[in-house]
Amino acid sequence: MPSNKTLQDVVMPQLAESLVSATIGKWLKKPGDAVEQYEPICEVITDKVNAEIPSTLDGVMGELLAEEGQEIEVGAVICRIETASGNASSASGADSGQSAASGQTAESGGRSASVSAASIATTASGDQAQRSRYSPAVQTLAQQHGLDLRAIIGSGLGGRITRKDVLNYLENNKGSAAPQTRPAVPAPANAPFQAVSNELNAISEPVRNSGLHLSETPKIPTIEVEGGDRSEYFIDVTPIRNTIATRMRQSVSEIPHGWMMIEVDVTNLVQLRNKLKDEFRQREGVNLTYLAFLLKAVVGAIKDYPIMNSVWAVDKIIVKRDINISLAVGTEDSVMTPVIKKADQKNIAGLAREIEDLATKVRAGKLKLDDMQGGTFTVNNTGSFGSILTQPIINYPQAAILTFESIVKRPVVINDMIAVRSMANLCLSLDHRILDGVICGRFMQRVKDNMESYSLDTQVY
């Protein structure tokens, strides 16, 4: 090796305080490949979320000391990178831990790297298998400059587009890379999802009676076809999908699920949100969603019935003192459960900001492992899809999960008179080893009372 070159060790970073190891899912660089600082070099799998480990320096990939599928302890060397002596820097993984847990879905299966312009338009298979797999840095640059990544030729492994490819494309197309909007989908715009009747703001498009809490048009999943014939096709099971499957199977097989539902009159809440949402948006820069009000109601009920905030430990039940609410947030091909820590110490405005922050992280692929840990009770907003009845699977090892269904107008009998009210169902799945019908019924009634107690005088700060 030339004297002006040096080898730097790259170690498995400490992605989170409680993490002691992670599994190498896929190497994105092979020996001899050029590596830029912050460019992902491999994908790792944890029990919570997949992450990309970025390089902490510029250089050339050297020896790979860990194999795909191998579990590596934190601090162990996974590879070496050859650098110029003047540019050598510590590859301890501290920087990697800061940005690695990006929440990006890692696809399985390895393929060779060979890029040619003629193959870009073809289906992502063979030597272009990673063509449509983008790192957080690439996605962020594309969003900032309104780029269509399909027009960029990738130089990475398997045709993968690197950050350098995007920067080169911008340099070569100065003045022509005007911001682009995403292709239109055959569905109504945002407005129909924000109103149900004349009680809400007037809109120009047809009014729908579902999906009241949606803030954007649902995205359609992107499916990668691996092969098959006329009668079938194959979809790779990604590592994160495999993790979801494992945890769901564990939840259903170990936890005896019970289920109940309660109906809530949220007419006053609808009126309150309509009164505050525009001013709140101007003041805070985030949406004031119904979910924030629900979380406040749930947290208040958990304070009254702390057994809901517990886990099963075989010979004992562990009741958590902190109320950390896990939010089920769906992406195109998976479900994440980021956590609002100490939700009981936040007001409605604070909860709204937390919801927006976590949802933005999920969509941008910037979710860190620490964002996923410590949840004690899960809330899911299934009503955003127009659902009115759900039987959710408990987020293991928690004791319960609550779903908030769609708000719809229904005739309701009040004092022997029929009135049209905004109604919503709350559905609860419970661990019957810990919880029984009586305690859960009282808990649900308390959530209902809290939701129905909102009025035009309710303060969000």
Quick structural gist:
The chain has 461 residues and is of the alpha+beta class. The protein has 3 domains: 1-108, RNA polymerase II/Efflux pump adaptor protein, barrel-sandwich hybrid domain (OB fold (Dihydrolipoamide Acetyltransferase, E2P), Beta Barrel); 110-182, E3-binding domain (Dihydrolipoamide Transferase, Irregular), CATH 4.10.320.10; 241-452, 2-Layer Sandwich (Chloramphenicol Acetyltransferase), CATH 3.30.559.10.
Note down, in words, how this protein is organized.
Strands 11, 14, 15, 16, 17, 18, 19 and 20 form an 8-stranded mixed β-sheet that branches. The radius of gyration is 25 Å and the shape is globular. Helix 2 runs parallel beside helix 3, helix 6 crosses helix 7 (348-364) and helix 6 crosses helix 8 (437-452). It is an alpha+beta fold. It has 3 domains: 1-108, OB fold (Dihydrolipoamide Acetyltransferase, E2P) (Beta Barrel); 110-182, Dihydrolipoamide Transferase; 241-452, Chloramphenicol Acetyltransferase. The termini are far apart. The chain contains 8 helices and 20 strands. It has helices spanning 94-99, 136-145, 163-172, 239-254, 267-284, 290-304, 348-364, 437-452; strands at residues 5-11, 21-27, 34-35, 40-45, 50-54, 59-64, 71-73, 77-84, 228-229, 232-233, 257-265, 310-312, 317-319, 325-330, 335-336, 339-340, 377-380, 400-404, 408-414, 417-431.
Give me the number of helical elements.
Answer: 8
Q: Could you say how many structural domains there are in total?
A: 3
- The shape, in one word, is globular
Predict the CATH topology of the largest domain.
Answer: Chloramphenicol Acetyltransferase
CATH class of the largest domain: Alpha Beta
Rg for CA atoms:
25 Å
Uncertain parts: 89-126, 177-216
Derived structural class: alpha+beta
CATH architectural label of the largest domain: 2-Layer Sandwich
Strand content: 15-25%
| Helix content percent band | 10-25%
- What does the average pLDDT come to? 78
